[in-house]
């Protein structure tokens, strides 16, 4: 280190792409390096770590000036980037290499980490035990260059990955609930907010996509997670956008809805938990399903704009047709 007053902190919080930017933007942070630590193999590769055979965790090592940004503040920032109750990984990423760990570099850091963990456990913020481990720091091996500062090198993919993995939605739900509501009201139209946040329904035949036929994909208006493709859209004459199926079943979840004296299956987005609409068994497709979705819950990305919007990987869907 260039300055004897600088210190190091090492945190594992799942995918290291998502653990750099939150610290990198803070004053007093000298550097944030993505890498591997905690295992038994020297100089491991990304593929070796992902194979779960090295014992390493994906982690970030932070060089910081404690006079400007104290270690306790780093801990506070760290907790707000992860799901500390998940013992099996983080969000989409499963396995030991994606588990959460605080690696302490001194007895002072160990005590601060334990106190911070106990305070979080006793705060009542989470209804499950805090699973994050606290372990002594070991040799840290920087990851391959293309992993460093990934949020700067590939911002579109980085942002889409954060949204799609569920990390952003989790952070908003558990740490920024009030701010999130204010931001959503500013971001969304009154109808979009009513539909996605209050389980509302927009008027039939008087909504944006009920008769929309352009090629592209439909994403969650709140989080941007991909939901439906124009290839699966059909005219059901119901006055709302209708689809045979979602692009990926893991992008949605069902919930029994007994409101208004009816029994229906509500459809919600997996990560943002937005109300989308309902699914019925009167569709013409192979599965016989009709996903009746509110236009107000969707944003449409035309085929020609998929790349620039960060959804370039879905262009292959159109090449196959």
Automatic annotation (TrEMBL):
Q: Tell me which Pfam families the record gives.
A: PMSR, SelR
- Keyword Oxidoreductase assigned to the entry: answer is yes
Which GO biological process categories is it annotated with?
protein repair; response to oxidative stress
Q: Which SUPFAM superfamilies match?
A: Mss4-like, Peptide methionine sulfoxide reductase
Reactions it catalyzes: L-methionyl-[protein] + [thioredoxin]-disulfide + H2O = L-methionyl-(S)-S-oxide-[protein] + [thioredoxin]-dithiol; [thioredoxin]-disulfide + L-methionine + H2O = L-methionine (S)-S-oxide + [thioredoxin]-dithiol; L-methionyl-[protein] + [thioredoxin]-disulfide + H2O = L-methionyl-(R)-S-oxide-[protein] + [thioredoxin]-dithiol
**An annotated Gene Ontology molecular function:** peptide-methionine (R)-S-oxide reductase activity
Q: Which residues form the MsrB domain?
A: 181-303
Sorted keywords for this record are:
Multifunctional enzyme, Oxidoreductase
Q: Does the keyword Transcription regulation apply?
A: no
- Give the Enzyme Commission number: 1.8.4.11, 1.8.4.12
HAMAP family reported in the protein's UniProt record: MsrA, MsrB
- Its biological purpose: Has an important function as a repair enzyme for proteins that have been inactivated by oxidation. Catalyzes the reversible oxidation-reduction of methionine sulfoxide in proteins to methionine.
Q: What is this protein called?
A: Multifunctional fusion protein
Give the source species.
Tumebacillus avium
Print the organism lineage. Bacteria, Bacillati, Bacillota, Bacilli, Bacillales
């Amino acid at each position: 280190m260039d300055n004897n007053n600088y210190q190091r902190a090492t945190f594992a919080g799942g995918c290291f792409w998502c653990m750099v930017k939150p610290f990198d933007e803070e004053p007093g942070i000298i550097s944030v390096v993505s890498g591997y630590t905690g295992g038994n193999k020297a100089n491991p590769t990304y593929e070796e770590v992902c194979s779960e055979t090295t014992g390493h965790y994906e982690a970030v090592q932070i060089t910081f000036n404690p006079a400007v940004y104290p270690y306790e503040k780093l801990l506070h920032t760290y907790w707000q980037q992860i799901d500390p109750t998940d013992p099996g990984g983080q969000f989409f990423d499963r396995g030991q290499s994606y588990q959460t760990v605080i690696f302490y570099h001194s007895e002072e850091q160990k005590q601060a980490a334990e106190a911070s963990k106990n305070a979080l456990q006793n705060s009542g913020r989470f209804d499950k035990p805090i699973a994050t481990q606290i372990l002594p720091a070991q040799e840290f091996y920087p990851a391959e260059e293309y992993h460093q500062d990934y949020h700067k090198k590939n911002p579109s993919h980085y942002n889409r990955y954060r949204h799609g993995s569920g990390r952003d939605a989790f952070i908003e739900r558990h740490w920024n609930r009030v701010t999130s509501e204010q931001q959503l009201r500013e971001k969304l139209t009154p109808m979009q907010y009513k539909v996605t946040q209050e389980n509302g329904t927009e008027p039939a035949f008087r909504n944006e996509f009920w008769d929309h036929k352009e090629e592209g994909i439909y994403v969650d208006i709140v989080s941007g997670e991909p939901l439906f493709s124009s290839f699966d859209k059909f005219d059901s004459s119901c006055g709302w956008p209708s689809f045979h199926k979602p692009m990926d079943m893991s992008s949605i979840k069902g919930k029994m809805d007994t409101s208004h004296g009816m029994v229906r299956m509500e459809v919600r987005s997996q990560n943002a938990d937005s109300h989308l609409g309902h699914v019925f068994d009167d569709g013409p497709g192979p599965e016989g399903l009709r996903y009746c979705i509110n236009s107000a819950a969707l944003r449409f990305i035309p085929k020609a704009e998929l790349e620039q919007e960060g959804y370039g990987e879905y262009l292959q869907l159109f090449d196959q047709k």
